[in-house]
Amino acid sequence: MNTIICSIAVLAISLSVPAAAPLPDFPDGTVIACEGGYRDHIQGFDSDGESLYWSFASSLVKTDMDGKLETAIPVDYHCGDPCWADGLLYVPYGGGKWNQEIGEDVSKNYIRVYDADLKLVREYHIPDVVYGAGCIGYHDGRFFVSGGLPDGRQENYIYEYTPDFRLIKRHTLPIASHLGIQTIKFAAGSFWLGCYGQPNFCVRTDENFRIQATYDYATTVGLLYLNGDAERPRFLVAWHILDAETGLNHAKAVTVGVADGKMQVLR
Known about the structure:
The chain starts with 30 loop residues before the first strand and ends with a strand. The chain is 0% helix and 51% strand. It is mainly beta. Strands 1, 18, 19, 20 and 21 form a 5-stranded antiparallel beta sheet that branches. It has strands at residues 31-38, 44-47, 51-55, 59-64, 69-74, 83-85, 88-95, 108-114, 120-125, 133-139, 142-147, 156-161, 167-173, 178-187, 190-196, 201-205, 211-215, 223-227, 234-242, 249-259, 262-265. A hairpin with a 5-residue loop joins strand 12 (156-161) and strand 13 (167-173).
């Protein structure tokens, strides 16, 4: 793994972190294929408005907005769904035990922060997340982290942090899922949470994580807001593709919209 080249910054709790720039207005039917094949499957992606940043669990990949490869680096397993804020890429890392109680073990969950060239500049330990840090989102001056979950639980957890990752609150989402929440983004006035299940599904909540809707559509490996209002938002949603011959993993993103209580591909 890359060497950390600066210490954790001490920031005031009131510090506000600017969000990423808006994405281009991709037309319905857009397909963006991430160039290259990778050892592990896609976990999520985000954008600074000029480039796309893809997480493949043991690789971080930067492409242009057409999916053409710009930079790729190996990283410690398991990095999850990232978010771009304040000119930096925030990436959750779940180490140690996943989807189970850690007992007396030390939580090995971190947020690692990269610049636009995927150079590691900062790291935060987040011991409050004990089942595996798998996704991070940003909204209204705060970061929100979620991830793994032991089987059999009937609720999920979202951890709210200050910009320097001091825990504010643990939110409880009264809905069951398999292996927790895999992606989290705030868009069109709501949080959008990608969950594993049979089948995978998406949960929409308000700012206080009160459930507004669920959709039988998988947003578990990446979702980015494009445009539209609260009634008809449009997204880029990532898909995972496994090449059976080479064993390598690929990803693409397609345009997806919500209307009349359904989430579906826009063609």
